[in-house]
Amino acid sequence: MIINHNISALNTHRQLSSATNAQSKSMEKLASGMRINRAGDDAAGLAISEKMRGQIRGLDQASRNSQDAISLIQTAEGALNETTDILQRMRELATQAATDTNTGTDRNEIQKEINSLTSEINRIANTTEFNNQKLLNGDKDGAAVAGKPAVAGEYSFDFGSISTTVDDTIEIGGQTFTVVAAGDEDPATGKFSNADTLKAAIEGNAALKDNYSVAVDAGTGKITLTQKADKESSAALTGNGVGTVTEVTKGAEKVDAVPADPDKSLKFQIGANEKQSLTLDIGNMSAEALGISTKGADNAGLAVRDGTNNETTEQALNVGTHASAAAAITKINDAINTVSAERSKLGANQNRLEHTINNLGTSSENLTAAESRIRDTDMAKTMMEQTKNSILAQASQAMLAQANQQPQGVLQLLR
Length: 415
What we know:
Elements: H1 7-32, H2 43-98, H3 104-127, E1 129-130, E2 133-134, E3 154-158, E4 168-172, E5 175-179, E6 191-192, H4 195-203, E7 212-216, E8 222-227, E9 238-239, E10 244-250, E11 253-255, E12 266-269, E13 277-280, E14 293-294, E15 303-305, E16 311-316, H5 322-375, H6 379-405
Helix pairs in contact: 1-6, 2-3, 2-5
């Protein structure tokens, strides 16, 4: 018999500690509802489930993003619905003004309403906002629009308002030309102050003279560049405030003339990861962009407003004669088609986003189920283990008490 080492007690204590630890872990799992509460519970399972959690939260946020995007689209489309109604009324008025049963006084009254409706279209375009972002004034239109056509075509620039007080530049076919004060122009170095000296600079440029023919309208100062049919060099026609690209044509087909500006496009994050986004461009829906007003002098005196109650040099369509009113019908028809196409694009994207939301919900649900299988505890199984561990702990305690009594037998030898 020995008393320095109670092996039975040590063994029983070890078993009790093991049962107590197991019972503690079971209680933790039952309290949290999770099988993995720390990395030590399942290192690989923790890493996998954390990645899944990131995806799930990303998908849920992407769904909310998509819902916000739908709200933005609905705001823009709702405004364009009113623009369409206005254009339909303007078409009706133009048709009324086109008949010669009207007197000049009658047409003047019709003109007043045309002017007012044009101002309202501008107001809608300039004030429609979502979260303080203007939607219909062209600020959200960054679509790639033939900024560098590699085909033959005619490019028209209006240089009627060139400023000679500051230097500015324009790029044509990769060549840079600089506007300078009158008298300082030098076609040999690409410096010009008006359309005539720019023409001379282009015709004197070895890299361009074989690619373009140049014409200047003496009355308006407008310069027209025609890329020769047998050339296919890319023509980068961009300016830094110098002039305005008024039209680009290839044969009889008109093409866009504004270089791409992706930073202006709306980008909706509709996925949990990088490059899972939807890009949307909303065109300029102002009267001038729709072709139902001008900033020239053709319709002088028919000033409209820009949407902030400020009269501008912009003029509404003239319906003062049969010819002008009839022409206005066609222009308004084109504007209606433009607005309808924009509304169709918005509607298509809204439908797409609704499907996106459904898909995101399904993906989130499936990933949540997968994450649950890894991370969550089986409550019934864990309760069974907890019961087993509790009984083992109680039994170990009883046996430890018995083991502690065994050395008492030594005292019997002392009697």
